[in-house]
Amino acid sequence: MNWVISIIIGSAIGVIVGLIIAIPSLRLKGPYLALGSLAFALLLGQLFAMDSLPFFGSLGITNIDVLPKILSDDPIKFDYLSEFFVLLIFMIICVVILLAISNSKLGTIFKAIRDDETSTEASGINTTRYKLIAFMISAFFAGIAGSLYTLHLGTVAPSIFTSLNSFYPIIMASIGGIASISGAVFGAYFFMILNEVIVRICTGILPPEYLIIFSNIAALLFAIIFLVVVRFTERGVMEPAIKRSKDVWDLLIGK
Predict the structure, then answer these.
(1) Last residue of a domain, one of 130, 161, 192
(2) Which of 118, 164, 236, 252 would give a disulfide with 177, using CB separation of 3.0 to 4.6 Å?
């Protein structure tokens, strides 16, 4: 199957799965909603690991052509630079669409539900309906991300999607700024670059047998950063940083 078509189908299936999970989950509110959706993730992880079911199993689906190989003109060489630009284009398109949704009437309703669901419901808006739409939109972009991730790894298996990975997007969004699309992008870049730097440094100085222990220490380090950010700034790092840089700039030009 053409890789572009597979991404479209993957995102469409993501929407369907998101809708199926949203219907029972939306009976919950507040932190219980987050815990409920996490429970579904853990449940599906166990389901996909069952070797007795068709198309499932602990080994997952293997021998998928990776994107650098698909994009390369040479069947032997892999074109990683082209993969980077394809992923960058996908990211820009997704961010632009999300910003357009955020600035639309639909986005205004989402923000109203986020800030005060009771008042929004009292004004005559069907909050359950819009929360279902929010779940489906989130699942659509998660489907795109999952499809691209599969094309990057060349395999998809339950072991890849651990419960720890469910917390990474929360950490990314919290670092960059909750309720901010640009903040989430910043948080993702900050998280991944910091993670890569730490891994590269420790890989060079630590023996291989200590790398597994280090991975747990790295998770603990990110958890501490997450707690510090949540404790001292509700809006993440990006918004205060921009305000501070503006204050410094005004001071330098004498305003």
Answers:
(1) 161
(2) 236
